[in-house]
Amino acid sequence: MKSITILIADDESEIADLIELHLEKEGYRCIKVSDGQEAVHAVQMHSIDLAILDIMMPKLDGYEATRQIREQHHMPIIFLSAKTTDLDKITGLVRGADDYVTKPFNPMELVARVNAQLRRSMQFNASAPANAPVLEAGGLIIHPEHRTVFLYGKPIELTPKEFDILYLLASYPSKVYSSENIFQQVWGEAYYEGSNTVMVHIRTLRKKLGEDMNKNKLIKTVWGVGYTFNG
């Protein structure tokens, strides 16, 4: 059985060592680095199943490291940060993280979040086999196997959560999803900040799809209810 490898990127060695100690007790293999540039290099050189990235790191911060990692890889990413406002958390999720943990944190809670993200990742991979249907609508083509999106032949770069939201809506174009429904299915949990998080992701997704300039919106808001695919 393949061992699960987790990348820990934090310039505070005491924090990185503490995380490593608790993850190794769970049977995970850990790779530790101290800046964002090393984190990107580690992902290129090793088979990483999940990354834990501090936001404020030397050379490359967690946001930029995530952007570069997301160009080729789709493993779950958890942000660590001393920034604790709701806006900070939503920004982290929109910038490509799958979860956001504030410092100081309970190591056992972080381990639980790691386990949850790995479980969801494995469930998604199992539910999207090689023969999962390619979805096409209104010039939009979604390839679930490669997690790629094209609009009129042009590739659209989406974060993993943006892709999951779009694929969910496009898979059932006649169904209306509330923000809570979307959050529960894409993030896999009930969360009191879920509505705002989904709203921000939808807004960013629409911008990437060029809907600000297009009257025929692919994602339609059903006021007071939620969102539906309008392909």
UniProtKB/TrEMBL annotation:
Keywords: DNA-binding, Phosphoprotein, Transcription, Transcription regulation. CDD domains: REC_OmpR, trans_reg_C. Residues 132-231 bind DNA. Residues 132-231 form the OmpR/PhoB-type domain. The keyword Zinc does not apply. The keyword DNA-binding applies. Transmembrane segments: none annotated. InterPro entries: OmpR/PhoB-type_DNA-bd, Sig_transdc_resp-reg_receiver, WalR-like. Residues 5-118 form the Response regulatory domain. It holds the Pfam family Trans_reg_C. The modification 4-aspartylphosphate is found at residue 54. PROSITE patterns: OMPR_PHOB (PS51755), RESPONSE_REGULATORY (PS50110). This is Transcriptional regulatory protein WalR. The lineage of its organism: Bacteria, Bacillati, Bacillota, Bacilli, Bacillales. The gene is walR_2.
